[in-house]
């Protein structure tokens, strides 16, 4: 399982979350255009200003070793190479999310979340607290297959709606090959802009 992005009390505002898509466009002599989406789903780029990091607990509100936690994660990932799990506090859990309907044969259902009128696959499910089939809670007979698939031992009956309560994270990579950790004063560091982007599910 990838490392988790650390809890950083020194994260400041504004935090940005940018959906990223890609489209191929071809123009015809008539003036008409043909457009094709290149990504099966949007990627999300996050930018966090981290105004306070401490290596030794000099500032209790910033934790005891928040500098080491963030710096260690970045070096562990070797910049843009490795991946980690980021839990968005505003977009990280759903309740009674419909995952699909049984057909009597299918045993695997990807975890999804609904965002407005869009339903898309989530990156990495971290915990599942309840699974229901046709409204009945299932005490067993299912398992979580990493990163994001609900697997049943026996296929749900045709027409039975499968739903779940679960938490999820975004599987991400850092955007920049270098990040500036600034030493402001003894015991206090900052990163003005930390950027990372989700990967395709």
Structure description:
Residues 5-196 form the DUF2460 domain. It comes from Methylobacterium terricola. By secondary structure, the protein is mainly beta. The chain has one helix at 66-76; strands at 3-4, 16-20, 23-27, 33-37, 43-53, 84-86, 93-101, 108-110, 112-115, 118-121, 124-133, 136-137, 142-145, 149-152, 161-174, 182-185, 188-198. A hairpin with a 2-residue loop joins strand 9 and strand 10.
| Count of domains | 2
Task: Determine the number of helices (DSSP H or I, runs of at least 4 residues).
Answer: 1
Principal-axes geometry comes out as flat
Largest β sheet strand count, sense and barrel closure:
10 strands, mixed
Number of E-state strands = 17
- How much helix, percentage-wise, in residues? under 10%
Protein name: DUF2460 domain-containing protein
Pfam family, one: DUF2460
Domain DUF2460: 5-196
């Amino acid at each position: 399982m990838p490392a988790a992005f650390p809890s950083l009390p020194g994260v400041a505002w504004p935090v940005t979350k940018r959906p990223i898509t890609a489209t191929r466009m071809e123009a015809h002599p008539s003036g008409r255009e043909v457009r094709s989406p290149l990504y099966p789903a949007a990627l999300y780029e996050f930018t966090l200003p981290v105004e306070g990091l401490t290596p030794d607990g000099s500032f209790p509100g910033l934790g005891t070793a928040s500098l080491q936690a963030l710096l260690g994660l970045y070096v562990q990932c070797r910049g843009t190479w490795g991946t980690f799990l980021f839990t968005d506090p505003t977009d990280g859990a759903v309740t009674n999310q419909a995952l699909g309907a049984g057909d009597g044969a299918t045993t695997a259902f990807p975890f999804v979340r609904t965002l407005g009128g869009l339903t898309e696959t989530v990156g990495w499910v971290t915990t599942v607290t309840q699974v229901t089939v046709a409204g009945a809670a299932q005490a067993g007979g299912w398992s979580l297959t990493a990163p994001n698939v609900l697997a049943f031992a026996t296929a749900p009956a045709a027409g039975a709606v499968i739903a779940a309560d679960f938490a999820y994270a975004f599987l991400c990579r850092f955007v920049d090959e270098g990040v500036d950790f600034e030493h402001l004063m003894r015991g206090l560091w900052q990163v003005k802009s930390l950027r990372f982007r989700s990967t395709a599910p």
